[in-house]
Amino acid sequence: MTSASPRVLVIDDEVQIRRFLDIGLRAEGYEVLLAATAVEGLALATTQSPDLVILDIGLPDREGHEVLAELRQWSQVPVLMLSVRDSESEKVRALDLGANDYVTKPFGIQELMARLRALLRQRAVLGEPNPSPSYNAGRLQIDMARHEVILDGAALLLTRKEYALLAMLAHHAGRLVTQQQLLREIWGASHVQDTHYLRIVLGKLRQKLGDDAVNPHWLKTEPGVGYRFLGVSDTSR
User: Fold this and answer.
1) How sure is the predictor about 31, in pLDDT bands with cuts at 50, 70 and 90?
2) Among the listed residues 75, 73, 74, 93, the one whose alpha carbon sits nearest the alpha carbon of residue 83
3) Kind and range of the H or E element at 164?
4) Which is nearest to 146 in space by CA: 125, 163, 162, 161?
5) pLDDT of residue 38
6) Which conformational region is residue 213 in: left (phi greater than 0), alpha (psi within -120 to 50 degrees), or beta?
7) Mean pLDDT, residues 17-24
8) Would you call 211 exposed, middle or buried from its count of C-beta atoms within 10 A (0-12, 13-18, 19+)?
9) Is residue 110 within 8 Å of residue 31, measured between CB atoms?
10) pLDDT at 234 over 60
């Protein structure tokens, strides 16, 4: 356990389940992060370094198994899977992919809390780190564990929003990330139409990176849609 208040990330598309877990976890002293989709969950896992992840198998944009497999490429954070599917084959599949535990819906909050405590105790006993990916794009390095960005050997001083924007784009290197996705993850769901926030932060980030909007080296604008990180990333563990 890395802090007095462990951080738990809940990835589940059911509003009632998220609300139920949010109330129950906070009552037990946990810090809670909530995501309704795979994209949101992976973004939070990348930028917020949770101590434990509660992951639903049936997500609207990707299967929970796919999310787990991607997460395991760079992190060994404990993952507890949730599902209405109670077959042995489903449980075996999740565990083989790297899940640490499996709970079938509906579930009791006390049982779930006991399982969470057990997973966090195991992690503390093993002394297992929660590594975050580092991205090496030649002149630019992004250390997700330390929240450090190095350009040409010198550390860049970024604001929290600038760092979160760069980290999310780098995590999806080469792929288009929409304005709405960025706004939802960095500013919150109530700001998905506030594209001017995004343009301002992106402009400042470009300035610090020495990037040219017309002929970009790192951050490419897809007009009216979103942005793309152009650097080739290597993930280290």
Assistant:
1) very high
2) 93
3) helix 160-171
4) 163
5) 92
6) alpha
7) 95
8) middle
9) no
10) no
CB distance 50 to 44 below 8 Å? yes
> H or E segment at 194?
none
> Taking 80 as the threshold, does the pLDDT of residue 145 lie above it?
no
Where b means 16+ CB within 10 Å and e means fewer, 45-73 reads: bbbebbbbbbbbbebeeeebbebbeebee
User: Could you tell me which residue, 5 or 233, shows the higher pLDDT?
Assistant: 5
Q: Report residue 142 as tokens.
A: 């992004």
Spatial distance between the Cα atoms of 68 and 75, rounded to a whole number of angstroms: 10
Q: Which helix (H) or strand (E) holds 114?
A: helix 109-126
Domains of the chain, first to last: 7-126 (3.40.50.2300), 134-236 (1.10.10.10)
Tokens encoding 56: 């639903």
Radius of gyration of the chain (CA): 18
**139, 152 in Cβ contact below 8 A?**
yes
Whole-structure pTM value: 0.59
Q: Per DSSP, what are the bridge partners of residue 220?
A: 228
**Which runs of E-coded beta strand occur in 132-229?**
134-137, 140-143, 148-151, 154-155, 176-178, 219-222, 226-229
What is the three-class DSSP state of 137?
Answer: strand
